[in-house]
Amino acid sequence: MLGEGIIKGLAETAKNFFGSYVSKERLTTVQYPEERIAPIEATRDFPFLVYDGDDWEAGLRCTSCQICEKECPPKCIYIEKSKDKKPDFTGRPQFYPARFDIDISVCMSCQICVEVCPFESIKMDTEFELATTDRFGGLLLDRKQLAKSNAHYHKIHPTEATLVDAHLAEEKAKADAKTKATADAAKAKAAAAAAAGEGA
Amino acid sequence: MLDKLDQVFVLLLHWIVGFLPVFLRPATSVVLCVVTIVCVFPALFAICVLLERKGLGRIQNRYGPNRVGPFGIFQPLADGVKSLTKEDIVPLSADAVVHFLAPVVLVVAAFLGFAVLPMGRNMVLVDMDTSLLFYFAIGASTELSVFMAGWSSRNKYSLMGAMRAVAQMISYEVPLLMSSVVVVMMTGSLSLVKIVEVQNQYTHGLPHWYIFTPWGFAAFLLYATAGTAETNRSPFDLPEGESELVAGYFTEYSGFKFALFFLGEYLAMLSISGLGATLFLGGWSAPFSFLTWVPSWIWFFSKMMLSIAVFIWLRGTLPRLRQDQLMNFAWKFVLPLTLANLFVAAAWRFMGEGWLRWVVCSAVLMAIYGLMARIGMRREHLGPRTYRYAE
Question: Has the ipTM of the complex gone over 0.90?
């Protein structure tokens, strides 16, 4: 019969209306500034720079290779290479970013910088309360604002961070083995040379 | 004492006017009444907006506005301040004069409708013999302002919205009028005061409201449908369908002019509810004879607010119609039913007292409704569409 659907719909909405006063479970919305839902693990919005240890400046993983700057589709990353070098996590001397800015008003959260980074140094953050009264300076984050500890990374993306740590440990082990092998080879060579000298 | 309360506004008016010299009295009393109407209904508009937002929220299992003041009751105030402080933008290529006049005309036309509504015993601004006719004549001028807004904005969305609005409002004006005509037939008067007086009688404690007759019930439903469409309310809100037309005819309006459109829409809703209450729900008369001691204006305004609640409920329930569905519904379903209802009402009038006319009229109306519904809901076989491109 014509009109039956309207009656059914009206009954449904009436049920919702009165039900929302009776049962709290119906109200699925969260009163945001006071209540918050923890973000799911896959949440990601803007990039940040990971550092190891306690000192953000010394521990930055970034070697300022500038791949992310070149790959960034909206060109929102600005990097200045340092003049000197500092040792990275394997102990090898590397460049570091003297300046690393991301304009998050331009960033489109595509995560390409994360994908291209060979040093696992740039990752996606979950911080979304980035509103500011200054729309130019306030949205241009410098390297100090971007630097966040590995512990923070573990907190926001635990699974991913564990994988990254394992990968880095593997790299380090490989590098260590290599240095050890070269050292051993050098030692053996030196020993051989010494032996040859003695023999001569 | 209760009589005094019933007439409190009338007595207040007489008391104030009593201080003035005789030749000033008629003009002053009119001005005072107008000022009251111009203050009371925007206040009701604010309440309606709050109730609507709250109600829709609850229907969708949300809280609705709850930030400004306790339970968000000052939300309309915040909205008002916001719309007043916003920049008033007039498009460069718009017709500035018409663009400015459109919201003014809309609000004025909406206010004029209240002039003839009896809001309580002896509480009517102008007691015309043809007040119903006056109401519909004024109501038709809202179409003009809507089209003025759409045309002067020089925007495709505005124009589309205005075209839709005009098509819809003119189509639904016909069933709106036709469904009200039965009341005029029964009362024998176009005066709204008279119509309420006729309904203000009781048998066995129950009122003689027109909604409690078969033709009156049918006419009320048809009136409600047409009234919803006439005020551009959901599910008939095609002129301002935001998912298709940004905001329809008031796309290019901002700041206080936008607020005026909003006000005009709600005033139209309030006045169409008031007229519906007057025609079918006995205006200011009490629903039971033992409740007649309650002041008449309380009944009128509660009936009005009840209609608003139903409007909100419908908005929270029904999805928007498509343009062809809207037009088909008006011309192929609502209009034939109103015409049939005219004959049923005539039959009721000439069948005399007794149970027979109840049975006959109800049966005829049900049969016509069933038949029309069957014809309307018949599924036509839809084949693949063929297009022919313009050459």
Answer: no
